[in-house]
C-alpha cells in the first residue's frame, strides 16, 4: 500500500486519499478515560506484546510513545494524519505503533483502547480495509476484544458500536465550494448516514477546498455495506464536482486559468505566507494539475506541502521553535523552494 | 538627450522623466479654434517651411499628420507622452513634428499654434529647456511670434501668458501615496503655484503611484525662476518620499518585500491583466528596484511597459483591433514575456 503523500495523480483526480479506522477494546479492561497513567502504560505494553511477535514485524514497525515527545513533535504526527487530536490529549499514557511506510497506525489509549488506522493514496477503500483487517486479525490472536453478539464491537462512544468501522475519503472540491453546492451536499450526506468534514476532521472547515467524507453509521450494517454505500456517495460527489468544474471552465476558461496561474505565481513569490492562504493557493494549483493546465508539478509535491506547511511540521523541517510570524516567513521560503522548478 | 523610456535608473530613483513645454503663436493668425480645416492645414505647411531648412533637419525630423491616421494610431502617441489629448481633439487639422529619438515634439494646432515639447529621462530640467529653446530659436528665425512687451508670449489661454513655459517632472511616489501624505502635498503645491496630476495629465489620477509636478504660474517669472522653484519643490517631494519609504521599510521590512515580490509574481503569472492593475503592480516592482530589493530588472523595461500596457500601444504591438477582454489577455501575455527572465 502506498503512502498517500507519495501518491501521484491517478485515474481519479478528485480523490486524494482513502482511510479506514477500526475501534477495538480489550475485554475486562476499563475504557481509557477510566485508566490512570500506570494502567494506561500497562495497556500499551500489553498491546506491544501481542503485536511484536516476529522479527519481520519488529523490523517493519515501531512504537512511538507520546509521553516521551515534546508537544510540537506529537503534533507533526497529527498533521500527517497518523494520529488523532484525542490521542494527543491523552499524551501521558498514549502511544501508537507505526509501519515504516506510514500507511498503518495503531493508536493505543485514544478514546478506545485501540484505533487501527490504515491510509493510502487515491480512491482505494477495499485494499485499505483489507490491510486494516490483517492487522486486526493479528492482534485478535493474542488479545480478547470486547464484543457483543447484538451490539458488535463495544466502544467508548455508542456511535461506534457494531462494526466500529469508519471509512473515510479525502476529496478536493474546489468547484462545489465555489458554486456553494457544498452546503446542500452537507445536508444531503447527513440524511444518508454520512458526514463531511474539513482537512483536519471534526471542527475544521474545508480549508483548501479539501473535505473528508465518511460513514456516520456503524451499527446494523456489515463492513462491505458501509464501504459500498460510501463508495456510491463519493462517486456521486466526484461526478458533481467534475460537472461543476466543466461548467465553470466552459463559462470562464480564462478566469479559471488566471486564478490558477496567479496562485502559482503568489506561491512562488510570497515572502509572508499563512497556512490558510497557502492551503487555498495550493488548492487552485492542484485544480490546475487536475485539469491538465499545469503539467510540470508532481502531485506528490502538492500532497507533501499540505502537511509541510502545517505549524508543527514546519518547525520540524526548520529544526527550531518558530513564532507565528517566523512560521509565515519560513513557510513562504519552503513553498518557494519546493516549487522553484515549476514554470509560470 | 536620451529618450525617457530608454533611461536606466540614475542617481535619482524617485524621478522618472523631465519635460518642458513652450506655447507659441504666430502673429496675425487667429488661434487654432478660429481656424477652419484649410487654414489649419495652411498653418501646418507654414511651420514645416520654417522648420525644415537643412538636409540634417530633414533627416532627423518628420511630420506626422493626425488626419492621415486612424484614431488608435494617434492614441499611441498620446500614450507615449509625445502629444496631448487636445491635439487629438483637433485631428482634422493637427500635426506634429517629431525627432527620431522621440525626445522633441512640435505640436501644430493644439490649443496654440505651436506647442514645443522636449522630454527626457531622470531629473534633468535644464538640459531639457535648453533643447526646447534651441528649437524655439530655430523657428523664430522664420516665424514671427505673437509677443507683447508686458504680457510676454500671447497664448489662447491667459494662464499660459508670460513665459508660456510649463516645466513638469514625473515622479514615482508609492510611499507618500500609501501613507496618504499625497493629499496634503496636493494642497501645499497649489499654494506655491505648482500643480500635481496623474500619469496622463489633467483629470488622470495617480494610477501606478505616478504623478506629474509642474508649475502653474507662467507670468511674472523668468524661465530660470520657474525651473528653480520647481526644482526646489521636487527636491522636497523626493526627500519626503524617501523618508516615508525608510519609515515604512524600517517598520515592515518583510511586508514591503512581500508586496514587491507578490506583485512581480502576479505580473509573471496572470492570464488576465487590466491596465490599472498592471500599473499598480509595476509600481510595486519599480519600488523594489529603487530600493535595491530586485536587482535583475532593467528600469528601461519598466518604463517601456508603462506605455506598452496602454490600450492603443498594446493594439499596435499585437497589430490588431482588440476588445477590452482581448486587451486584458494580450497585456498579460506581453508583461509575462517582458519579465520572463526576471527571477522571483
TrEMBL record, chains A, B:
**PROSITE patterns membership:** PHOSPHAGEN_KINASE, PHOSPHAGEN_KINASE_C
Name the keywords, alphabetized: Allosteric enzyme, ATP-binding, Kinase, Nucleotide-binding, Transferase
The reactions it catalyses are: L-arginyl-[protein] + ATP = N(omega)-phospho-L-arginyl-[protein] + ADP + H(+)
Give the residue interval(s) assigned to the motif RDXXRA motif of the pArg binding pocket involved in allosteric regulation.
327-332
| GO cellular component terms given for this protein | extracellular space
Q: Does the keyword Acetylation apply?
A: no
Where the record annotates domain Phosphagen kinase C-terminal, the positions are: 14-244
Record-listed E.C. numbers? 2.7.14.1
* Broad enzyme group: transferase
InterPro entries (alphabetical) = Arg_Kinase (IPR023660), ATP-guanido_PTrfase (IPR000749), ATP-guanido_PTrfase_AS (IPR022415), ATP-guanido_PTrfase_cat (IPR022414), Gln_synth/guanido_kin_cat_dom (IPR014746)
Asked whether the keyword Cytoplasm is assigned, the reply is: no
Q: Which residues bind ATP?
A: 17-21, 81, 115, 166-170, 197-202
Instruction: Kindly list the GO molecular function terms attached to this UniProt entry.
Output: ATP binding; creatine kinase activity; protein arginine kinase activity
Q: What protein name applies here?
A: Protein-arginine kinase
Q: Which gene encodes it?
A: mcsB
